[in-house]
Amino acid sequence: MPCYDFSNFDLYFKENMNAIGLPSSTDLFGSTTLAYANIRELAEAVSLYGRHITLTEVWGATGKLEKLRTAGPILAAYYTGAAVGSLAVALGRTLGCGTTIADIMWQLRENGIYAVWIESELISHPQFLKPVR
């Protein structure tokens, strides 16, 4: 019997984002595929434009920001860090089997998501990686 179950990934992701005090959307982060794609998009924008770009500046011209409602003025680097932490928590709870943060960082890199600022965002905000139980 496998020790993983992806049926609650979106619930775990949203719980962690809500515990941090940030909005989330199943349309944007409801599966690992969606989460990786949208986190990659945010991370690329922050890497390109700098850590002071907001979600409004990244997603303002798309329908994505409408799904997050009040998140517009939030710094994209902060939100991306929270999303990476929530991805780690959700994957840890989904995969079970002793998944570690190192495993999550490896998964991010395997999915084309890596920049030095992501690690510093996680170090600066350890609450992103604390699972809600």
Give a brief rundown of this model.
The chain is mainly alpha-helical and 133 residues long. The protein is built from 7 helices and no strands. It has one domain (6-125).
How would you portray this structure in words?
The mean pLDDT is 83. This protein has 133 residues and is mainly alpha-helical. 59% of the residues lie in helices and 0% in strands. The two termini are 24 Å apart. Helix 3 (32-49) runs antiparallel to helix 5, helix 5 crosses helix 6 and helix 5 (76-95) crosses helix 7 (116-124). 34% of the residues are buried. The protein has one domain.
Could you outline the blueprint of secondary structure elements for this entry?
Layout: H1 9-20, H2 26-29, H3 32-49, H4 55-59, H5 76-95, H6 101-110, H7 116-124
Helix pairs in contact: 1-5, 3-5, 5-6, 5-7
Please describe the structure with a list of short key phrases separated by commas or semicolons.
mainly alpha, 7 helices, globular, about 60% helix, single chain
Unreliable parts = none
SSE string, helices as H and strands as E: HHHHHHH
| Number of domains as seen in the coordinates | 1
Q: Biggest sheet, in brief?
A: none
* Approximate strand percentage: under 5%
The class by helix and strand makeup works out as: mainly alpha
Distance between the termini: 24 Å
| Proportion of helical residues | 55-70%
Global shape? globular
Work out the radius of gyration. 14 Å
